[in-house]
Every structure is written in C-alpha cells, then in structure tokens.
Amino acid sequence: MAGSTTAERGERQQKSSGPPPVRRLRQLRLRTIVILAVALVVVGAGTVWVLYGSNWLRVERVSVSGTLVLTPAQVSEAADVPVGEPLLSVDTDAIEARLRRKLPRIDTVEVVRSWPHEIGLKVTERTPVLLVRKAGQFVEVDDDGVRFATVSQAPKGVPALELSVSRTGSRAASLRRFGEDRLVREAVLAAGALPAAVAKDTRTVKVRSYDDISLELSGGRTVVWGSSEKGAAKGRTLTALMKAAPGARYFDVSVPTAPASSGS
C-alpha cells in the first residue's frame, strides 16, 4: 500500500501543531483572573492602610480664615477638629454644625480637607445692620433679621432698632398678625433700602406697626417710611427730597409718588 502523500503529511503536521485545547485556554484565563484579583486586593489593602492606618495622612493642623470679630482660636476651639485622626475620616458636616451651634455669629463656614495634614475652616461672619438695646447691652441683628450676638458696646455706624409696638389698641392687631420677628425683618428691609448717605446718618429705626416705620437721623431729622414695600422707590424719592429741601427736618416718603417735607 502506497504511503501518505506529501499533502496528507502536511495536514497531519498542521493538526498536531494547531491551537491548544480548550481546557488549557480556560486554565490560562483563570490564572490571569486570580493574579489580577490578588493584585487588586493588595493594592486596595495598601490604599486603605495609607488612608486610615498610617501616619502619613492624619490631621496635624487646623487653619482658620475670614474672621472679623471672632478670633481664630475661638473658631478652632468650637470646631473641635479631631487632631490625630485620619484626614479622610473627619466628619466635615459635623464640624460645620458644631460651629453654627456654638458660634451664632458665623453665617457660613466651609470645612476643607487640605492634604496631607490640614483641616481648613473658611468662615463668613454675620454683619449687624440693626441693634436692639437690652438691659444696657446691644443685640446685633443681621440682614436676615437674625439676632445673633449680644455685645456691651454698640458697633460704630449701626442704627438702633426701637420696637414701639403696642400690645393694646389698634396697633396690637399688627403685632398679633405679623409677630415680633416679622416686624424686625420689616425694619431690616427698610434699613437695607436706604441710600448710602442716609444710612450713614440714621441713628434709630422705629417700628410701631407693619406699615408704620420711621427713621431718626442725625441733626434731629425724621423720615416717615411707612411699610418696607417699595423700598427702592422710597430711597430714590428721599434722596431727591433732601436735595430739594436741604434744610428740612421732616420727610415723608411713605407714599413715594406723593412725598412731603417740612420744618426748615
């Protein structure tokens, strides 16, 4: 019987040197997967250790910026940042809440991780726009009507708020309807609408009811403001009125389209 042809021998040789069996491929894939999984575990464990277990990324310093009346030491003490703890584990929301609770003078605060060792506290303090006299001291009120601090000395250039709201008679209805806090906010809105030159000369903002707000200026001058509504129009009208009657001591802009002045 004749031997195999050259073509047949080449075909057998190609089959014998062909691709590895399926089982071998599966073993290679499994080995690769195991190696990758082990590598990921090692890298993950190392990362966790660096972030939480090592001394490389722990809180060592607390910086404070933005203070005006408060001192950095007061803010740092109230924040009670856990020095020595891993930087990543610091609860920034809890620090912010503590600062707001302990220091009402703080309006906003941003707690920032500054790698590798610092927590930064960026503070914005409330600014008083009115003062309420109380037992020989002064309660500061900000532009949101929030009473945030009591001081023994009045800040320079901040007018006093005088609430002369009767609890009996016709004006008592305004107090019952709006409440004292709302009336304070109305006074804040009125003060915020004053032209800069008038605000500088304002000594007292008086509130008798929701629509009966008046201002006492330097030199014994009085401005009847009315309610806090149409504040921008009232401010423009008051500026024009003061220019037209520079010697007047009484100005009424409660109806800005029909102002009046008197008492030269």
Overview of the molecule:
39% of the residues lie in helices and 25% in strands. The protein is α/β, with parallel strands linked by helices. The chain has two domains: 61-125, Ubiquitin-like (UB roll); 130-262, Rossmann fold (3-Layer(aba) Sandwich), CATH 3.40.50. The strands form two sheets. It has a nine-stranded mixed beta sheet with strand order 6-5-4-7-8-9-10-11-12. The longest helix is centred in the N-terminal third of the chain and has 32 residues, at 22-53. The protein is elongated and about 110 Å long.
Counting structural domains, the number is 2
Shape: elongated
CATH class of the largest domain: Alpha Beta
Tell me the helix content. Answer: 25-40%
What is the CATH third-level topology name of the largest domain? Rossmann fold
Summarize model confidence as the mean pLDDT: 85
Q: Span between N and C termini? A: 142 Å
**Strand percentage:** 25-35%
What is the count of helical runs? 7
Give Rg in angstroms.
37 Å
Order of strands across the biggest sheet? 6-5-4-7-8-9-10-11-12
Low-confidence stretches: 45-53
Order of helices and strands: HHEHHEEEEEEHHEEEHEE
Per CATH, the architecture of the largest domain is 3-Layer(aba) Sandwich
- Give the beta-strand count: 12
**What does the main sheet amount to?**
9 strands, mixed
Please identify the structural class as seen in this structure. alpha/beta
Draw up the topology in text.
Layout: H1 6-16, H2 22-53, E1 61-65, H3 72-79, H4 92-102, E2 106-114, E3 118-125, E4 130-134, E5 137-141, E6 147-151, E7 160-163, H5 172-192, H6 196-201, E8 202-209, E9 212-217, E10 221-226, H7 231-244, E11 250-252, E12 260-262
